[in-house]
Amino acid sequence: MRYDLVIFDNDGVLVDSEPISNRLLAGYLTELGHPTSYEESLRDYMGSAMHRVHDMVLERTGRRLPEDFDDVFHGRVFAAFERELEPVPGAVGVLEKLAADGVAYCVASSGSHERIRVGHRKTGLDRFFDDERIFSSQDVGKGKPAPDLFLYAAERMGVAPGRCVVVEDSPLGVQAAVAARMDVYGFTAMTPASRLAGAGRLFGDMGELADLLAS
Fold this sequence. Notes:
Layout lengths: L4 E4 L9 H14 L6 H8 L4 H12 L7 H16 L6 H11 L2 E6 L3 H11 L10 E3 L11 H10 L6 E5 L2 H9 L3 E5 L13 E3 L5 H6 L1
Parallel strand pairs: 1-2, 1-4, 2-3, 4-5, 5-6
Helix pairs in contact: 1-2, 1-4, 4-6
């Protein structure tokens, strides 16, 4: 293994939540008078913390989203997770291999702690992640593309940034990893490779990751 710590993004990398959450986000914004397509939601908000949604709507329209926007949205998302959410194909195998080999890993997500845990519990990934392996943008206040979350995760895990690799599927996440001076592998299952151009390596099948990390 070339790295001392593997830092996973969560949504779209470990749990197949991006289609669900972006479908619901586009629908809710449209309900509120901010017409948004699924494709536009992926383009503008995939991989970001919720404050980015508020900031971009305010910047574009001069109108603030309702105070209960986050609560309503997360309620819809969590209900949909219970019905639909699955792990990303290949993610379980990668985590099993890292655990068996004694390689340190963690998750660093723009999502809230509650969202991470709901998704892991539904998909069975909670068996791989105790509290000490879960980091959220809530912990640092400044989400991706700022490097703060990845640097915080590395510090808490006791590993120097230069010995970390980040697994990301969003342009914002790749930017954050590069800013943290960490290597980054871009997962292209949902994101065109051209949008993850800052990643050192690109791959489209999570089942390939364990071998890529060892090569």
